[in-house]
Amino acid sequence: MIEVKDLHFAYPTGLEALKGINLTVDDGEFLAVMGQNGAGKTTLVKHFNGLLKPTAGEVLVDGVSTRDVSVAKLSRNVGFVFQNPDHQLFSETVEEEIGFALKNFGFEEAVIKKQVDWALNLLDITQYRKTSPFMLSGGERKRVALASILAWDPQVIILDEPTIGQDHQQKEKLQQFILQLNAQKKTVVVVTHDVEFVAECNPRVILMSQGKILAEGMAEKVLTNPKLVAQASIVPPQITQVFLELADLGLPTDVIDVHEATKILLGRLRERQ
Amino acid sequence: MSVFEGFKFRKVSSVVHNLDPRIKFFFVVILFVMAIMFFELLALVVLFFIPLPFVFMARVNKQWLRSLRGAAFFAIFIFATNILVGYFYPSSNRQIIPPVDTATEYLILVEYASAMTLRFVVLIASFSVFFLTTSPDHLGLALQQSRIPYEFCFAFTTAVRFVPVLADEAQTIMDAQKARGLELERGNFLKRVRNYIPILIPLIVNAIRRSLELAEAMESRAWGASEKRTNLYTLKLRRADYILVGVSVLMLIIAVYVRLYVPIPSLTTLLLL
Question: Which residues of A touch B (CB under 8 A)?
């Protein structure tokens, strides 16, 4: 469980990025952190594995303050997948890349081999085992980066902008994959701008703006509130926009799911006939 | 990374910012020459105060202090080296002031080491003022008007412009690898050096990738299409610039005179009188 208590953070340049954040992320929860550029989303989640330490306030991971523990130790339970895979890939082969963290954490050789095999299989990149990560395409590099975190099976997984630069098919796969992780009782925290992606997953959403939490609740509540999303400089999902514009016809305004929308519209059409 | 911060230009307008970069550079070089001319602590203290009015006039005190703080590590290193060398090979500074007794000898040694350290600080302090108050564009313009081929000017300004970008990127990469359990400070000396491989490889690969992208972007904007380039802005010397040239030359004349004809007392002898 991650507890954030009155968290303030200022960068050395004096920029105040977080201004009093209170938040609890329960075990096994799926949370999306949304908001405009510079709202403090990445700064917030970088506190979860101790990469940043609070200027004031506290962040507790399983009851322990992140101030007292090293990043290496926290990372054992909290895996952080960075936005750009090119910021971490350095090994000669994909296999070594995935094994890197396991070596750092002091796993035994046999366990490392087993976990690497498992992660390669999990992300469908076994065929690239001996390939240089630099020879892979953008989407594949992203999967290698993801595998290199999942390999040590952390309890909490933080993903910073996982959908950027992915084609539709990859995005679909990623979405299935994240939902599957969450179904296995992993805590998943996603930082994203991608409203459509969030709408399809329907996680709990926190909406941030200028270092503060603007609103929180399930995606279908938060993303369908035109005022809130405007304040956070995002637009509601397209299907919600359609329903908002047709509100005069008596259609509900809190629809984010395409299948649900189809059902409602079909119902209406049948009534007319 | 704070050393880089101290050399990062921020757009402000002040008398110092508006000075011709060529003249500012001339002034900094004169300071440099003067710092090399003296090894007496008293003289170097005076030199240290010369760039201060410029710092205040340009309102860059905060950033300037940060660059000094960033240089503190090297300053301590220089101080320690001088003390050690002076202690084990006393002949190296005995020529400056002959020893009287052991206690005084130590004082002289400390004063000498402080002077050498202060010399370094003066150099950093004055160059930092130059870079903090001169925009990369101005610098490029100054180089071009000094009849240096445009290709070289461009390469130079690009290099200067990308220093902060690279520093930011290095920080992100460090975070990404720390999140995979890398502990930079762990192990013996050799291990620690090896710890930097996962940081350096992504940094270099990304720098190369970025330079190729930059080259393509430049070429698609017709870089080098015309033989003779003209500029929208040209540098012209103004009254303040002539005054600064005068001040610089005057300082140099005084310094040469003092060096040749005025004996500078050491602080130790002054204290013991």
Answer: 12-13, 46, 49, 51, 70-72, 75-76, 79-80, 82, 84, 86-90, 100-101, 104-105, 134, 148-149, 152
List CB contacts of A47: < 8 A, sequence separation 6 or more. A4, A7, A9, A53, A54, A59, A66
Domain that holds residue B109: 1-134+237-273
Cβ within 8 Å, pair B181-A76: yes
Please work out, in degrees rounded to the nearest 5, the angle formed at the alpha carbon of residue B220 by the alpha carbons of B215 and B226. 95
CATH number for the domain harbouring residue A165: 3.40.50.300
Q: With 70 as the cut, is the pLDDT of residue B273 above it? A: no
pLDDT per residue as tens digits for the range A162-176: 988 788 888 888 899
Q: Do B207 and B253 sit in the same domain of this protein?
A: no
User: How many domains are contained in chain B?
Assistant: 2
What's the number of domains chain A is made of?
Answer: 1
Domain membership flag for residue A18: yes
- For residue range B45-65, what is the model confidence (pLDDT) as tens digits? 999 999 999 888 888 888 888
DSSP character string of A130-187: TS-GGGS-HHHHHHHHHHHHHTT--SEEEEESTTTT--HHHHHHHHHHHHHHHHTT-E
With beta carbons under 8 A apart, name residues in chain A contacting B178.
51, 71-72, 75
Distance CA(A31)–CA(A23), nearest Å, equals: 11
Query: Is the pLDDT reported for residue B148 higher than 90?
Result: no
Give yes or no for B235 touching A (CB within 8 A).
Answer: no
Give residue A191's domain range: 2-219
ipTM of the complex: 0.89
Query: pLDDT per residue over A232-259, tens digit each?
Result: 888 899 999 999 998 888 888 888 888 8
